[in-house]
Structure formats: structure tokens, C-alpha cells
Design goal:
214 residues, alpha+beta, NADH Oxidase, six-stranded antiparallel beta sheet, two-stranded antiparallel ribbon, 7 helices, 8 strands, 41% helix
């Protein structure tokens, strides 16, 4: 089973339970449609990183207070701000399905989330290759909303990336991203390599999340 299918089933809440053939066939069809409608884009920028003794984090001129992000960035000397989106076509696909078949819409939502994660992993590998030339190694992505990293930091991160102009990514007054299937994140870069995966579940302290990878 492909990783994207396993991730979709995780988002759908299957856990260790097996999915029936009808669901698996629907997931396969949805991914085929998403491949035609999604228009993934990403942006990243590298900033100097400083962590103060009182727990403050400076990424460029941005000051952040977050103990969970601080733990994730321990030992890092650079921070990569990252943004990615699947584009508006995915939102339209979900909206159309919601009007005719909510069950299908839920599957599309899950498939799109898995596709976005897959795309982000691929882009992070490219970033890792470039940073490796400088002798730096990446930590897992850490997004606003993880742990005590306040979702309000979405705004300065997007501003520093100029997301609206670069990848067409904006947000609502409540810090929700538009298009929906989008993400922003901070990725630490350290001179010491650690056995860290690129995906975010392993870096998040929310142990009771029903979608958490086991």
C-alpha cells in the first residue's frame, strides 16, 4: 500500500482497522483527480536563528515565545520559513463534492491532506540537499498551531515569506489558510545531524491527537 493511501486512511480515522475495497478504490480515483486539479507551489526563505536564555526565539527580526518550538530548534543556527499550497483547484473540488456527496467530500479532504504532506516532504528534501552543502541538517517541520506555538504566528511567517505574491496563499482573520489545503512551517537547521524525519507528527507534543502517526 502506498504511503499516501496509508496517510489518507489515517486522516479518515481507520487506525489499525482495514479499509474495504470500495473505500480503497474511491481513494485511488480521488488521487487521480487531484493529480489533475492540484497546482502545488511552495516558498522558503532562510533566516538567522537565535535562542535567548529566557526562552525567546529570534528568527530574523521575528521574536517567538514557544517552549515546544524551542525544543524542536535546540542546537539550530538557521531557521527555514516554509509555505506550501495545493492551490484553489483543490478547494473547488472539495466544495463541489460537498454539495452532492458529503462522504466523498470527506475522502477528498483526507486525500488532499495526504497529498499536501507528500508534497511538503518532497520540497523539504530539496531544501535539505541545499542546506547540506552548507554543513547544516534539517529538523522536522513545525507549524503554527503545534504544541504551544500559537497559530497567530501564521501572520508574520506569511508576511516574511510574502506568501500572497509568491504562491497565492492568504489567511482569514482567524489565521486559517486560504486555499484550505496549505501549510506554513518553521524548519530548524543545525550543524549536527539527528535521526529526525521530515514529517511533523513526530515533532508535535499533542499525544492524544486521533490523527497522530503511531
Amino acid at each position: 500500500m502506498e504511503r499516501r493511501t496509508r496517510e489518507t486512511l489515517r486522516y479518515l480515522g481507520y487506525g489499525k482497522n482495514a479499509a474495504d475495497e470500495k473505500t480503497l478504490a474511491l481513494i485511488k480515483d480521488v488521487f487521480a483527480e487531484l493529480e489533475q486539479t492540484a497546482a502545488p507551489k511552495s516558498i522558503c526563505r532562510v533566516f538567522d536563528l537565535e535562542q535567548t536564555e529566557d526562552g525567546g526565539i529570534f528568527i530574523g527580526n521575528l521574536k517567538i515565545r514557544s517552549s515546544s518550538l524551542s525544543r524542536n530548534l535546540k542546537g539550530c543556527v538557521k531557521a527555514v520559513l516554509f509555505g506550501a499550497t495545493l492551490g484553489t483547484g483543490t478547494d473547488r473540488l472539495i466544495a463541489r463534492a460537498s454539495l452532492k456527496d458529503m462522504a466523498e467530500a470527506v475522502v477528498i479532504q483526507a486525500c488532499a491532506a495526504a497529498l499536501l504532506e507528500e508534497y511538503c516532504d518532497q520540497e523539504q528534501m530539496k531544501i535539505a540537499e541545499n542546506m547540506g552543502k552548507q554543513g547544516l541538517y534539517l529538523r522536522p517541520r513545525f507549524s503554527p498551531g503545534y504544541g504551544d506555538f500559537d497559530i497567530a504566528y501564521q501572520e508574520p511567517v506569511m508576511r516574511m515569506l510574502d506568501c500572497a505574491k509568491t504562491i497565492g496563499l492568504t489567511m482569514t482573520d482567524s489565521f486559517m489558510l486560504t486555499p484550505m489545503k496549505s501549510v506554513t512551517a518553521v524548519i530548524g537547521a543545525a550543524p549536527v545531524k539527528e535521526p529526525c524525519p521530515v514529517a511533523g507528527c513526530e515533532a508535535c507534543g499533542k499525544k492524544d491527537c486521533e490523527y497522530r502517526r503511531r
